[in-house]
Design goal:
The complex is a heterodimer.
Chain A lengths: L1 H28 L4 H6 L5 H10 L6 H14 L1 E3 L6 E3 L14 H36 L4 H15 L2 H15 L15 H35 L2 H8 L4 H29 L3 H6 L5 H11 L2 H29 L7
Antiparallel strand pairs in A: 1-2
Helix pairs in contact in A: 1-13, 5-6, 5-8, 5-10, 5-13, 6-8, 7-8, 8-10, 9-10, 10-13, 12-13
Chain B lengths: L5 H15 L36 E5 L17 H9 L4 E3 L10 E3 L7 E3 L4 E5 L14 H10 L11 H5 L20 E5 L2 E5 L7 H4 L28 E7 L3 E6 L17 E5 L4 H10 L7 E3 L8 H5 L2 H4 L2 E14 L9 H10 L2 H6 L7 E3 L25 H10 L7 E7 L3 H12 L4 E7 L1 H8 L8 E6 L10 H5 L19 H12 L3 H18 L2 E12 L4 E2 L17 E2 L4
Parallel strand pairs in B: 1-10, 1-11, 14-15, 14-16
Antiparallel strand pairs in B: 2-3, 4-5, 5-7, 6-7, 8-9, 9-10, 12-16, 12-17, 13-17, 18-19
Helix pairs in contact in B: 1-16, 9-11, 15-16
Classes of the chains: A mainly alpha, B alpha+beta.
Chain lengths: 329, 579
């Protein structure tokens, strides 16, 4: 187990380093010049040189990359003299735009993204698992066919369409709730739920449809396994057969999928956050792209990668718990 | 320099141009023969809701963080409006009024509009009594000097460069953050209330230059370097209570601001809340619906084109639309160093070939744009558009064909047009019009952040690109020299003179006008030069974009200010009634 964890953690570090290098190279290859952009209108060539130097963009790529990676652990200093600011571990540099540490910016936006992702995940698991299970247990009946046709339809709906439809019907036409805005859970738990319901539904519908189909197939497959027949032959009640012997092993692919999806969403559901004006990591990413704020884009890319590779590790650990056949070696 | 009265100085740019319209011999009203394209403008007298009451909370709905609120770095519209009208005061500032009246300046921190001497190479300003920051400490002349010095710092880039261009500062000066201050040869501060600027050359309109946020005070003791943007110390009517960048900013009254010292700002609301987390359509939907606190809200961002019909077809909503010319010219830049655009006859043909109406339609039509008929926007030509060639907005293909034939390109040619990813539709409108003349345009779209560096690189710059320019204050001196002075051209990183137009006659005239100390004479000369450059056609003026902004039904004193690119003037906006 310890060896497994060590190997995986090393793998995660290596993956993140490669992603970091690739992202750095992509920025280097882009024709845009952040120094010229931040220098202002009609900036003289001399001044662009000074600004580039100040932003640390005048060094060779490898030096900039080394400084960035080292800075994550050892920290970085922005500016010089008595007005210089320093950020400690983990330091992903400073936003070109605001001068704020990227880590602080991401931490500040993480609650909104986590609220959206976790709430939506609960909803899509409830909807997806129950619909998939129902469909599997009523295989080839009208219930199964209705659920499956509905999931195809829902899965085909783009997020922006669902969001705009919900906003139009629920907010504009029916006036059931005000235009959503993010309220922190600690500030007003009821307001938090009320304002996140529509984003949760929007995000959950698409995922629920996919999870329903996956659960159905997985449960059907599992229920055909010999050990399920054995369980039935032993005279166990059908509820116990399905719950203990059928559903639990059928959940392993669902858990894999959930880990990946949650990992990706924690670093920001860009479209949903933008559509519902949620100040999450995804919105920060979109805003930073518009401003070519390279350190923030780099930081969020690494954060997203970290969540995805880490969730993979968590999924592997959960596997062993769900399905005793899986062993961590 | 001839010493003029302040009134004459203030009125010169705004009003005298009307007299000078005949100077270029090719003037007229905007829109030419197409009066049917009169666009949507603010109803009534241009001011929505009458005079506001004092108190209440004004909500500003936005989808974007302010670029920089640090006064040394604030050089984007409408962030300058936010900074200068609410948070900090400058030596002089613009009147709070729509139309030509808003182009006039008033003393702000200074007691007057400045006293020029030494042929307008030296400008002296005296500060008013009783000026204080948000913490009650007095504002002194050295604080203004200090902020001007900050604008030289490479650590604080992006701000107006007028101090760097005009001041007699030593070459290579890098600002005060490392303790180095400018000497008396550049700025003198003989006492706490007097500041004297020494310029490299005469600048007759320096009274206008000091409206820029560079000339706002920054207390040295409160310097925070790159973080100053996150909490600039207020010298204006409001101070920052909280600013969560990209999310929300709350402004409350600066109790040390004395309205008796401020002839312009009225500061009606008690509190101003800026929500930066919204989406363009969300802002429009909320203001169209006009419910609850949104009745006390204004839009910071342009009305999205998708919602314009919802506004125009609902009279009650349309009454709440502020829509005026933003004062910027969008133009089709031709690379004058690249064939066939090195041929002036071909460039002239392009003026006739482009269908500006179709181009404008891709940007929302008359509700969002006016067809541009010369380089200088109406705010720089006395409020009335100059129509140099009197070409129909849809172009004159026959005339264009004739000119191309004369130039030896009767059968057309091929070229490339570069624009940002969001500009494809506009590029296609140009492509379609030129196709009719056998001009094959290949469109290349790139990320918006990459456009400037490609267009600014001599080796990569294509034949055509779409660009624009906005004046920094209502003077052609902040327009024509910036985009048509051939001596500023750089092989790489070329920014202003994108067309690489380098005409010795034009350059000489730019220098001559810069030395004119009579602003009326200078204004006439700018108009004549604008016409001269139009004849040489390095670029085709396309549209003057409008700024459509929706406000809630309880908003009063809302109007588009000509200097802030048509943005609402935050100096005098407020609520009709307070709960």
């Amino acid at each position: 187990m310890t060896g497994f964890l060590l190997r995986r953690l090393l793998g995660i570090a290596g993956t993140l380093l490669v992603i970091c290098a690739l992202t750095f190279a992509v920025f280097y290859l882009l024709p845009s010049d952040p120094a010229a952009q931040f220098c202002g209108k009609d900036c003289s060539a001399d001044r662009i040189v000074m600004v580039r130097q100040q932003m640390g963009l005048d060094d060779p790529l490898i030096v900039q990359f080394g400084r960035y990676v080292l800075g994550i652990f050892a920290g970085q200093t922005l500016g010089s003299g008595q007005y210089a600011v320093h950020c400690g571990f983990p330091c992903f540099g400073y936003s070109f735009q605001s001068g704020q540490p990227v880590w602080d910016l991401m931490l500040d936006r993480l609650p909104a993204s986590a609220s959206l992702a976790l709430g939506a995940a609960v909803l899509w698991l409830l909807l997806g698992l129950s619909a998939g299970l129902l469909s599997a247990l009523r295989r080839n009946t009208w219930v199964d066919r209705t659920v499956m046709v509905a999931t195809i339809g829902i899965a085909a709906l783009p997020v922006y369409f669902t969001a705009m439809l919900l906003l139009y019907v629920v907010v504009t036409v029916l006036g059931l709730m005000p235009y959503p805005r993010y309220i922190a859970f600690g500030e007003d738990p009821v307001g938090w739920i009320r304002n996140l319901i529509l984003p949760w539904i929007t995000l959950a519908l698409t995922f629920a449809a996919i999870y329903a189909r996956m659960t159905r197939n997985s449960v059907i497959e599992t229920m055909a396994e010999p050990y399920v027949r054995t369980a039935r032959a032993k005279g166990l009640r059908e509820r116990r057969v399905v719950g203990r012997h059928g559903l639990r092993p059928a959940l392993t692919p669902v858990a894999t999928m959930l880990g990946m999806d949650l990992g990706g969403l924690l670093a920001g559901a860009l479209i949903t956050e933008s559509l519902f004006s949620l100040p999450g990591v995804g919105k920060l990413f979109a805003d930073s792209l518009n401003k070519a704020d390279q350190p923030v884009i780099m930081g969020i890319t690494l954060l997203a990668s970290f969540f995805i590779v880490t969730s993979n590790l968590v999924v592997d650990l959960v596997y062993a718990w769900i399905d005793p056949r899986a062993r961590l070696t | 320099m001839t010493r003029r009265t302040h009134t004459a100085l203030a009125a010169a740019i705004a009003a005298a141009l009307t007299l000078g319209l005949g100077a270029c011999g090719s003037t007229g009203t905007g829109g030419g023969e197409d009066q049917g394209r009169q666009g949507v403008t603010t109803e009534g007298d241009g001011i929505i809701g009458g005079t506001p009451v004092r108190g209440g909370t004004l909500n500003i709905l936005s989808n974007v963080d302010f670029d920089q609120l640090d006064p040394a770095r604030n050089w984007t519209m409408p962030v300058m409006d936010v900074g200068v009208r609410m948070l900090y005061r400058t030596l002089t500032t613009f009147k709070a009024a729509p139309g030509a009246e808003g182009l006039k300046i008033e003393p702000d921190l200074a007691t007057d509009l400045g006293t020029p001497s030494d042929g307008a190479r030296t400008w002296t300003f005296h500060l008013k009594d009783g000026l204080k920051y948000e913490d009650g400490t007095p504002i002194v002349a050295d604080d203004i000097k200090y902020n001007v010095e900050r604008s030289f710092s490479p650590e604080l880039p992006g701000g107006p460069d007028y101090a760097r261009v005009y001041l007699n500062a030593p070459a290579g000066y890098q600002g005060p953050l490392n303790g180095e201050r400018l000497g008396k040869e550049a700025i003198e501060v003989p006492d706490e209330k007097t500041i004297v600027f020494h310029l490299k050359r005469p600048v007759a309109e320096f009274g206008y230059t000091v409206t820029l946020p560079t000339f706002a005070p920054v207390p040295r003791a409160k310097e925070t370097g790159v973080n100053y943007s996150n909490h600039p110390v207020s010298s204006g009517p409001y101070r920052i209570e909280s600013y969560d960048r990209g999310k929300r900013m709350v402004l409350v009254r600066n109790t040390y601001w004395d309205e008796k010292t401020d002839p312009v700002r009225k500061a009606y609301p008690d509190r101003i809340v800026v929500d930066q987390t919204l989406k363009g359509t969300g802002v429009a939907d909320r203001l169209i619906a006009d419910q609850g606190d949104d009745r006390d809200a204004v839009s910071y961002i342009d009305l999205v084109p998708a919602k314009i019909s919802d506004v125009l077809t609902a009279p009650a909503v349309k009454k709440r639309l502020v829509s005026e010319n933003a004062g910027c010219t969008t133009k089709l830049d031709m690379n004058t160093t690249k064939a066939p655009f090195d041929n002036a006859q071909v460039r002239l043909a392009m003026q006739y070939a482009v269908d500006k109406e179709a181009f404008a339609d891709t940007m929302g039509g008359p509700a969002f744009t006016d067809v541009a008929t010369t380089y200088l926007p109406p705010a720089l030509t006395g409020g009335t558009a100059v129509d140099h060639f009197r070409i129909p907005p849809a172009g004159d293909q026959a005339k264009a064909k004739a000119l191309l034939t004369e130039a030896g390109f009767g059968s057309g040619f091929s070229t490339e047009l570069l624009t940002s990813t969001g500009g494809r539709q506009q590029a296609e409108a140009i492509q379609a019009a030129l196709k009719k003349l056998g001009i094959n345009v290949t469109i290349t779209t790139v990320d918006p952040t990459a456009v400037a560096s490609i267009v600014g690189d001599k080796d990569k710059q294509p034949g055509l690109s779409i660009g624009g320019w906005c004046p920094d204050y209502p003077s052609a001196a902040t327009f024509l020299p910036m985009i048509f002075d051939g001596r500023t051209i750089k092989d790489k990183g070329n920014q202003g003179d994108i067309t690489r137009f380098d005409d010795p006659g034009v350059n000489a005239e730019l220098d001559r006008i810069a030395t004119l100390t009579d602003l009326t004479q200078a204004d006439r000369a700018w108009l004549a030069l604008d016409a001269k450059i139009m004849d040489k056609s390095p670029a085709v003026p396309l549209v003057w974009q409008k700024k459509p902004l929706l406000v809630g039904s309880n908003i009063a004193g809302a109007f588009a200010h000509p200097v802030w690119s048509g943005q609402l003037d935050y100096a005098v906006i407020g609520l009709k009634s307070v709960k």
